[in-house]
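Database export, one record per block. Field names are fixed; values are copied verbatim from the stored entry.
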Amino acid sequence: MEVTFGTAKQAELNAIVEMLVDDPLGQQREATTNSESATISEPYSVAFSHISEDPNNELIVARTTPNTECPSGVVAVLQLTYIPSLTYQGAWRAQIEGVRVHKSCRGKGLGEKVFRWSISRAKERGCKIVQLTSDKKRPDAIRFYEKLGFVASHEGFKLHF
């Protein structure tokens, strides 16, 4: 499968949100449209603008050309956030969030390509650590991250409002 990576474009937002929704946890917390039309709801567009304008954030998509394994266009997405830190002697770290792979492309090695590219990108930006969290309801994802070399070295906490 031939894949290219790059910064997401506004015109790709619909495909990105569709991947967020097409997920057991995403179905509980995401929404593809507003109530008046079939367009992406405003909070997604606003968030996209904020991410796009922030030099320490990148919304990255994987794109394919037509083939028998995956549809053409956007087939994976993730957000990379670059965080300056005083710890580790002032090292930068990259936080990976919102990872999704199109359902027709899962199990074909695309996820590993996405992560290898993202790790390489974090190194290019001078990061010394790449970190992520994974919902405990995603045991397959956790095994995948461990296979890539990520270590569950910390206990993560979240406080939702």
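Remark 1: The first strand starts at residue 3 and ends at 7.
Remark 2: The CA atoms of residues 19 and 102 lie 6 Å apart.
End of record.
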